[in-house]
Structure prediction request, 243 residues.
Amino acid sequence: MSLLRIDKIAKNFGGLRALDNVSFELRSGEILAVIGPNGAGKTTLFNILTGFIKPDTGAALFQNQSLLGLKPHRICQRGLVRTFQIVKPFLELSVLENVIVAAFNRLRNPKDAAQKAEEVITFVGLADKRRALANELNLPNRKRLELARALATDPTLLMLDEVMAGINPTETDNLIGLIREIHRGGKTILLIEHVMRGVMALSQRILVLNFGKKIAEGVPGEVVKNPLVVEAYLGEEYCVASR
Prediction:
């Protein structure tokens, strides 16, 4: 069943065509990766879906209801939530306080919000950091905090924007394991990612953008062999290395 349907979304910034009639569907329970070079339109797509900018034309339906024109907090309340490539915690609040704030998206009782936050913090592996200020965390733990804040809103669709950027291979593998656990818990996941190790380990389908256009879509093994994808993004070196 289609959870998210994007139909001919287009967005211009002056003379720049950031998205050029992009269409795709995301099925409930799926992990779909969006890849492509810098400037391909990936984050613009996320910003449209989460209400931060408006498209010039096109439609975006989540659970058969339009997302366009809704404020970001309303979209979050509907069950679609994102993380940010540059993590944005409340730096002077503790890990626990950061996640409690997110839990108030669904919950109104402070006790319930605190209980939800404790559960999520434990799940992402930050229980021992619960009293630490966000500005005391290293990058991998800030990434986990960003995930915790998103999960505390109890999303149906979790959108991850380069969650593996800037961390080492061991930390990447740990994060892949955590995202698999999130998916097994019933979350549908849409992810932007440059770390192909993570893309290939997690995604069931891949969508490729280049200069705002969709140039490929399909299962990972086929997409990474697509000549257009190799030329625009992966390069021959990736193909040789992955053999």
In short: The mean pLDDT is 93. The CA atoms of residues 180 and 192 lie 16 Å apart. DSSP finds nine helices and ten strands in the chain. The two ends are 34 Å apart (CA to CA).
